[in-house]
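Ticket closed. Logging final result for Enoyl CoA hydratase domain containing 2.
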Amino acid sequence: MREKHGRNTCLVHRDGARLLAGGGCPLTANSRAHSRRQHTEAEGPVEVDLKRLEGEDDGIVEVLMCRLKARNALGHVFVSQMRELLSTLSNDSAVRVVVFRSLVPGVFCAGADLKERALMNDTESDLFVHGLRSLMTQIALLPMPTIAAMDGVALGGGLELALACDLRTAAYSAQMGLIETTRGLLPGAGGSQRLPRMIGMTLAKELIFTGRRVGGQAALEMGLVNRAVEQNQTGDAAYREALSLAREILPQGPIAVRMAKEAMNRVIVVTEMCLFQVDIGSAMAIERISIPDVCETL
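Final structure:
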């Protein structure tokens, strides 16, 4: 499999790639690539990048998360870069499947950058949370199938990012959870709405109320992930499983797949556990109103 993606030079990643000295995205030893955007010292390291696969995997695009020092925490730069990248994918008919993966060992995404948020005033914080919610909606509205490959921890906003994807794979060793209540917060980017739709209201309430973390096997059993596998020596078993799943989707009719996704996303599932459902936008608005109140309890 040949690949193309862009960056400068760097440190070390265990799959043979080199991470940028500032904690940015990698270059494989044999890649021949030009940057998606021109990188300069003034801009700082790239925290999110794209890799377009070639050859038999042409049509698969990977979103690479590589904020090494902050464990892919959802900070302003990280969110802005990802939103910029996703905007380029929405209207690209050549993209058949998108895989979200981390290049930080043992981590998918550690959640919102609370250290960064603590330095914001109310207006800045409100704008940041709005951008975070918009990112999750942007992921969910991508017209092609999306897969989150969780080879490590996916907590809080990190799990919300995975929930916004269509499909999820995980290593057994991965840890997942909406842990906001353990910090006196609420899931602020749609997690309190997407999780119940995925695993059922009763179980979702239990996980959110307790802030419990679950491993890959438990996540598979409850329907939180589609596939779970033993972690390998290179720490990318979930990614390899996601790539295998993407390859199963790749030969199918692209228009049919996109239309199937749109049709399913329009369906509101009513279960015995929920007499009515609030649309995702309204639910996220409720979360937005609640967050300032619970922050006062910290």
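The first helix runs from residue 76 to 89. No further action required.
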